[in-house]
Amino acid sequence: MDQPVYARPALLVITVLAAVLYTWGIEHSQYHTFYANAARSMTESWKAFFYGSFDPGNSITLDKLPGFLWPQALSARIFGFHPWALTLPQVIEGVASLLVLHRLVRRWAGVPAALIASTAFLLTPVAVGLFRTAVEDPAFTLCVLLAAEATQRAARNGRLRPLMLAGVWVGLGFQAKMLEAWAVLPALALVYLMAAPIALRKRLAHLGLSALVMTAVSASWMLAVTLTPGKDRPYVDGTTNNSAFSMVVGYNFLNRFSSLGISAASTGSVSATQGGGGGHGGPNGATGANRTGQGGPAGQYGLNGKSGAGRYGGSGRQDGALQGTGQKNGTGASRGTHHRHTGVAGAQGSQAFQGQAGGQAGGSWAGAKGQAGGGGGLGGGQNGWSKMFGTALASQTGWLYPIAAVALVCGLLWRRGKPRTDRIRSGFALWGTWLITYFMVFSAGSVGGHTYYMGVIAVPLAALTGGGVALMWRAYRAGGRRAWVLPAAVAATATWSAYLAGEFPSFLPWLAPVVGVLGLIAVVLLVLSLPGRAASGGRLALAGLAASLAAVLIAPSAWAVQIFNPSYGSSGMGAVGPSGMNRGHRSVTSAAPRIGQTPWGGGTARDIGAGRRGMGGFGGFSEDGKLTASQRKLLDYTTARQGSAAYVFATTSWNSASPYILGAGAHVLPLGGFSGQVPFPTETQFRQLVSSGKLQYVLLGGGRGMGSRFGGGTTTSTEITDWVRSTCTLVPATAYGGSDSAGAASTAPDVTGAAEGDATAQTLYRCVPGQ
Fold first, then answer.
1. How remote is the C-alpha of 599 from its chain's centroid?
2. How far apart (Å, rounded) are the C-alpha atoms in residues 233 and 355?
3. What is the structure's pLDDT at 30?
4. What are the residue ranges spanned by the domains of the chain?
5. Less Cβ crowding at N or C end of the chain, within 10 Å?
6. pTM of the entire predicted model
């Protein structure tokens, strides 16, 4: 296809800018303290690689499908296990996503539309944050874009092969993000049914064959796990029945829609009775905080801006904060601030729940404004059907809502009466269906603080903006009533952008007025240069178009470039710029953490006390994964005495095991899975490990997994803990170079004395056969 002379240089500039934005500060990347353990384990053996084992001993998997980690693990095998090596695949996936989007829009709406769409996607804050973050969505976003590109090629000539390839890409997207990948199917199927120039029966047959391929690829890992005897593979996290299907359908899907009255109680999901799952880190997460605003079954934390019944306050009033026990240096006492209206929980530092290891007062547990409470602005916080219009999410991905909506309506209405195979109309149908489907899914489901979920929303918004501007510009130049649509769309988008910017008055206070002025200039120029007016003219109209693009894109651009600003940067949840705001005081109260910080707004990993260095907050990030001196001494002690045991020791939670896995690839057995509620190993299985000599040492304390923090009650982990304390022999801390504290052998004295005893000092026990 012939392209204008400026097309390739412009695309090259956009691509280079994307690479810069995504790689900026990559050398300061951090480990995701849950996922990075699996990535490390996956570099230790191909068995762990295939199953996505959390620990090198292959005892338990992640609570997700491992597909999104396969590129990270391969990168770590090639370059060594470093934080930047785990971030690099996301950068590559981001640049590839931008190029695929450009190709899709160019084939659909032309070169100018493609360049506008690529620029809009590049400058969407959530896209910048997404492709710098070691989570599931970068790989997922690329896969669904590739599926759309293959479907577009299939629909052009009614070809089966590219449609089958689209099924493969959706299946691979499933391996990265599970059932969320299937939400793109209505858009892909509609486009093929609308535009493929073949008979309906053949179109349906092609879609059926593609669906079979997609299903086979999607279910391949789950079937492989199901057909492998449980004794020969890791236990599937997130389940009570060791079923991959339970983990995917119940734990990671149905639990996300508890607000609709959907229950996963019969699916074998461990979080079926915990108030719905939102994943790692959100107040509606799999750890159990429910949607009524009270943390967990006992209302222990009161995270959603309402009164909690438990001891940690969080009443939604000022100073109703979770109290930490450490300041920046991990010593002394400090109190967070629970900001009025926003419900930002003031967890201290990177130990967001335990409040132990210090950070900046007022660090946000939620990681985003309105996340944990009745955040202000249209749509409130990140819960409820209006969450997508709330400033917490809209400021990251929704700047283009008005112009995309106008483009969709005009694209469908103005092309009515065209042949069924009309390429322009089918493109609007693709992006519109994509946008509406995911918009409804996220509105109904639990999002929590996971801003990076919105990357799949940024794609159709950018595409509709590019295609819509091209369509409206042609209508504008043609004159008539349709010519007024472009200035109206620009005015609406500028007004919406000014409103969003105004919700953060202490962050870039000049932004809202500048957007307003640019929008006004653009509208005036467009009106003056309307065809048929005395002042109309080509140059004036082009000036109006340039001002329009500036008015539409300057606000998201100003947020996106904050990754260069050490005061803000990007968070581990994919947010860029400020992530919290006190509407009562009309000032920014917390910002997205800089590179090197935890995503909850706490201190950097360097600020964490010696006993927990290398451990980010719940669902957070750690800086370098290095073991502290006391952790190294304990590991050396147990390793030297491991003998033929399969594990150097067991721990009561994944976060207690994390530093030893990240720092040394140690075969540590975590109890209870991510939530702390997984019945693996059972007490009987644990005793068998001891009696068979596969396990000798157990490290207790330092938290019991996330389940106990939310009123999880008695679990197999607590039963095992009680058995160990009553049966096994306490190892004095002095035996491995530690020090005794308050009668307990502490591996890290600075970790003791956690808030209200929620997390205890870590103590080492030795269990021998026959005890």
1. 11
2. 36
3. 86
4. 627-766
5. N
6. 0.82
